[in-house]
Amino acid sequence: MTSPLGFPITDKLYTRYGGFAEHPSKVLAQKGLAYLETIEADTHVKACLETRANQAIVPGWTVEAFSQDPQDLERAEFAKWTLENLENTFYQDLKGICDAIGKGFSVLEPIEELISSGTHKDKIRLKSLKHIPAKYIAFDFDEQGNIKSDGLIFRNNWGLVDPKSRFPFNKFVYCRYGKG
After folding, report:
1. Can you tell me the distance from the alpha carbon of 117 to that of 95, in angstroms, rounded to the nearest whole number?
2. pLDDT tens for the 180 residues of the chain, in order
């Protein structure tokens, strides 16, 4: 027997530690994320998830300098300017992160660009955060249950995992909600 990545499965622990693992929720591991998407389409469930996300987001956000040092103040001002000038609003990006409430995790890809003019010329800024639907994500774990440094794996449209589609985990914004 082999895992979806083609590794031989020698015991039951392999599916949890030391290789590809399904979603930590037993129901989702059996029925898949497509089942969850049908549940989330229910108006009552959707409203509950929206309420939980708003409880996390609505209080707002601030950017504060680490100290009154001029360099720290400049960095804080640049970070605030970047968040205020994202392609989408920062609120919409936070909503994408809150997708973890319903699915257990969310992954976003930061898109950066070089600023060509203005006060922050020649600096690299965060242009946008692109939400990646959970159904296209798989993870590869080490023996301790941690996601490997290249353990972010993309599924194709049919849900199949291609071992060649591995990406560095630290190049993405990852949010986990609940156990797992």
Report:
1. 30
2. 444 444 444 434 334 444 555 555 666 667 777 777 888 888 888 888 888 888 877 777 788 999 999 999 999 999 999 988 888 888 888 888 888 888 778 888 899 999 998 888 999 999 998 888 888 888 888 888 788 888 888 877 766 777 678 888 888 888 877 765
